[in-house]
Every structure is written in structure tokens, then in C-alpha cells.
């Protein structure tokens, strides 16, 4: 039987700034059943006149309900979460959702993570859930240094985790790579060879995910080992 997910009250208990347009929000959710790295939640906001809207957000931490929200200009939900919601305020939350795009600490294969923009959020949760020596490589595509999520953490990753940042619009001074979109050469140089048979997780905008998946298959990776999570341009 499929477990029916109930809406739960979630109280904001912490917030921290990640970039000029992104914050991480920590919630206390009584009755929360726990979750796996890579899962997400549904958020529901209801106005005084009864109008209600929902959005989905990836869980950013393996041991607590933490959401990293990227503010979308003109959005309906993300500006409220990023700018209006205050410590002690309560929203409704439902989850955890998803059982396909997940990584469990009991798994032993090498892991390749490829993230575009805020698609790095569930991938960071996987890195944070890693408790053994399973080797990880993260290839993170982002427009500029100012938009880099979890910057200090990813600049000093734990042992056995290699992080490569690909800047698409503007690279920091002294960067060995000129700005530009992620290429097959980048994945060949910074990902795992296909004959290592890694588990691959790709997350980001739909176009990014489709392009990266095609590159990985062209490089010889087994399509059955490539798991994807995508979001459309209108999400906020």
C-alpha cells in the first residue's frame, strides 16, 4: 500500500543566508518520519482569503528538515519564503516525497553528482549523508561565483569528495577555465570514467538535465545508473 502523506505544521526555527538571492530555512516538524538524501517536500501556503498554492523543494540536509530557497523574481512562493517568513512562523509541509532520486549511505559504488544552479541542493544532501569512504565527485555548473550555493562547504569538502565548479557566465579571477556551458570534455575530465560504473545523479533545469544525460551516455555510462531530477523555468 502507498502511504498517504499528511500535511504537517512546520515552524521556522532557523535561517541563514547562502547568496544574495538564496536562503536555507530550518523547520521543526512534529511527527516528521525522517527522509533520505535526494527526497523533497511539498510546501503549501494559504492566504487569509482561502487562496492556496503549492511548490516542491528538495531537502538540503539528511538529518533535519532544511530547505534552500532560491528567490525567483515575480514568483509566488519563493519571495515569501525568502523575504517574509520569520522565525516562529508556521507553514504546511508534506513529505518526504520521492524514492527514485535518492542515495543511501549503505551503497558502495562511486558516485558522480552533476548539478546545475539550485539543482545542487539534493546533491549536497547526498554529500552530507556520506558517512563512509565511498568516493564522490561533484561537477557543479553555476553562472557566477556570487551564485555559488554552500560556497565555504564545497570549497573544503570532506576527504573522498572532489568538487569541480564550472562557471557559465563569469569565472573568478585566475580561473583555469573560461566561462561557458558544461561540456563532455568537462565531464570526462572531472567525472568518473564509465568503466568505474558509478551511480550518477543529475539535477537542474530541464534543458541542463537532458543535455548532461546525453553527454554521460555518449561517454559510455550505463543509462540505468543515471538518475535525474529536473525543474521547469516557471517554478519558484
UniProtKB/TrEMBL annotation:
InterPro entries: Cbr1-like_FAD-bd_dom, FAD-bd_FR_type, FNR_nucleotide-bd, MRET, OxRdtase_FAD/NAD-bd, Riboflavin_synthase-like_b-brl. Coiled coil: none annotated. It comes from the Bacteria. Residues 5-103 form the FAD-binding FR-type domain. Keywords: 2Fe-2S, Iron, Iron-sulfur, Metal-binding. Its cofactor is FAD. This is Ferredoxin reductase.
